[in-house]
Amino acid sequence: MDAGQQKIEQRLAAKERRAAVPGDVRARAAARIGERLDPLLGARPGPLLGYAATGDEVSVDAALRGWLAAARPLALPRVVGPGDLQLHLVTDLDVDLVAGAYGIREPRDVLPTLDPQDVGTVLVPGVCFDRHGGRIGYGGGFYDRLLPRTGAAVRIGICLEVQLVDRVAADPHDAPVDAVVTEGDVYR
Length: 188
What we know:
This protein is of the alpha/beta class. It has helices spanning 3-19, 23-42, 61-69, 142-146, and strands at residues 48-49, 74-81, 84-90, 97-99, 105-107, 113-114, 121-124, 128-130, 135-136, 154-158, 164-165, 179-181, 186-187. Strands 6-3-2-1-7-10-12-13 form an 8-stranded mixed beta sheet. The protein has a 3-stranded mixed beta sheet with strand order 9-8-11. The radius of gyration is 15 Å and the shape is globular. The two termini are 29 Å apart. The relative contact order is 0.19.
């Protein structure tokens, strides 16, 4: 099987495993992931780039609200074109986000923008990860284009344990992460 086909199969299998996790179990896992994130984010300099979970993705809203409560700068991405994200600073997840592309909560377009180079830490969603920082997204290339623009930012992948594989079938353009946080552990 070629790498492209293996990547498709890994993506589909990970989506199925994640979808099979009951909502209450996913909520407990998200809480545990938030607990694991706290010490990783606590001393990090610079703005945090978060994401708004969609569907059965792991929600990081609790961590984002904690970041905002500490009066630290938070940005979220907004789709502005095919494979292209723009970062906007938000101060309130309930007020600043609206339904955007693909039904994902996004910052309002009138909010101030943030240059990706200024980000200190990125929380990275994905469909499938491995314990070495390999990542498979949804196939649109949004984060593969964005992550190289974040310079020295620390990239933290977020997923459930069931989304982990031994080794993702990554292409050369697939941007890796520095760590992966699950409800079970932190993999660096």
